[in-house]
Amino acid sequence: MEPSHLPEVREQYELLPYPARSPMDERHRLVTTWLDDLPMLNQYCFRGRQDFSDGFRVLVAGGGTGDGTIYLAEQLKHTDASIVHLDLSESSTAIARQRAEVRSLTNITWIRDSLLNLPRLGLGEFDYINCSGVLHHLEDPDLGLNALMSCLKTDGAIGLMVYGKHARVGVYQMQELLRLMNKNSTEGVQEKIAIARSLVDAMPKTNWFRRGEELYWDFRNGPEGVYDLLLHSQDRAYTVGELYEWIADMHGLSIAFTDVMRGSAVYSPQLLLGNSKPALIEMFQNMTARQCHAAAELISGTLVTHSFYVTRDRETQAPYGDAEFIPFLLHDAIDGPQMAKVVEKAAGERITLNHAPSGIVAQVSPGRFGKYIFNNMDGKRTFREIFDAVRAIKKFHAHGLSDAELFEDFREMFEFFRAIDRIFLRHASCR
Predict the structure, then answer these.
(1) Of 368, 366, 369, 378, residue with least CA distance to 337
(2) Distance CA 422, CA 102 (A)
(3) Residue 358, Cβ neighbours under 10 Å: how many?
(4) Which residues of the chain have pLDDT under 70?
(5) Bridge partner residues of 306 (DSSP)
(6) Distance in angstroms (rounded) separating the CA atoms of residues 365 and 382
(7) What is the per-residue pLDDT across 380-424, written as a single tens digit (0 to 9) for each?
(8) pLDDT digits (tens, 9 = 90+) for 10-19
(9) What number does CATH give the domain 7-165+236-311?
(10) Where do the structural domains in the chain lie, given as residue ranges?
(11) DSSP secondary structure letter of residue 392
(12) What angle do CA 259, 263, 267 make, to 5 degrees?
C-alpha cells in the first residue's frame, strides 16, 4: 500500500476502528445502511429494472468495520453478485471479516489499500460503489472521486455520504477549541478522549455544540465516536451548493439526495414548511431544484450529513406513469390495505399525513381512487393489474377509467410517499 493517504487517518482507524462493532452481534441483528438498500438502489439508479443478477459487482470503498459490506452481501447472497471491501485499516477490516464469517457470507473479497490507489489495482468496473463517510477525510476529496469514477461502469452508480456544513457548526467549533487545548499537550489518545468528554459536559447551554447535541449521536457511542467526531485529524463538510459545484458543475454528474429515514423530503422547502404559508411556498415553486435543495438545508438545520446517489445519466429513477411497474411500500410497518384504511377514515378532500419517522407533516389529496389503489397494492401486482382491480369494482364500471386518469388521480399521494422514500417501483421483469 503506497502512502497515498494521510498517515494520521490510517493510524486513527487502526487504533479506533469505526464504527465500533462486535462481530458476535451478527447472530441477532443486521445493521442496515440506507443508501445500500437494494430497492432504493433500483429506484434511484437503475430505472427500477435491475434484478441484481448477471454478475452484479459492488465495491465498498472505505468499508471500515463493514456495515455497508455486510448489508449488501446479506441482501445479495442468493445471487451471483460479488462485493469487494476496500479499506486501509487492518484492524477495521479484521472486524468486518469476522462479521462476515459469523453470517457465513462468501461473496466478499477483502483488499487492504487506499481508495486513491483504485486506478492501479486492476479490480475492473463496478455496477455500484458505496463510499460512505470517506471522501471528507481525504486531503483532496476530488482525487478520491476521480478514483471512484475510474472503476465505475458507464451505467453504474455511486452512493456517497459526506458531512453537512451548516448543521455541524457546533462540531467544528468544538474541534477548534480542542486543537487549541491540545496544541502543546503530550497526552495520549485515551487522555484526549477523556478531555473531550469532560469539556462537552462542562460547556454552558449557550455553546453551539450543546445547542445541537441531539444531532451528534455518535458522540455518546464510545471512545471511537468521540474521536471521530471531535478529534479527527482530517475533516471537512459541504453545503448543498458546494456539492452541486463539485459533483455537477465540475464533473457533469447527476445528484439524487435521500437523507436517512427522511428521503428527499428534507430537501424540499415546501414539505419542511408544511404548506403553512402559501405566499412563501409560491416563491419556492419558482426556484430551480438546485436552489430549493440549498434553501431546504438552511431551513432544516438538521442535515449533519448529505447522503446521495451519483450517476452519469440524469434519467435513472424508476418512472411514475408506466403501468408495467410494481409499486410497493417500504421502511415503515404499514402495508397497502392498512394505508387504504387510513385514507378511508380521513374526512374531506385532503388529509393530513403526519409521518413521525421523517418529521414531515403535509396535507395531501388521496384522490377519488387512492384507497382502492392502496387496497390492491401488495408488492406483487403492477399498476395495470391494480387499476384493473379498481375498474372491476361495480360502482366504477360505467366510468371507463383509463390508466392515465388513475395515475393522475393518485399522483399527489404517490409523490408524497416517494418524497419520504416509503413507496418504490420496480419493473414487472424484476418480479
Answers:
(1) 378
(2) 31
(3) 21
(4) 1-5, 275-276, 347-348
(5) 162
(6) 22
(7) 999 999 999 999 999 998 888 999 999 999 999 999 999 999 999
(8) 899 999 999 9
(9) 3.40.50.150
(10) 7-165+236-311, 166-230, 325-430
(11) T
(12) 75
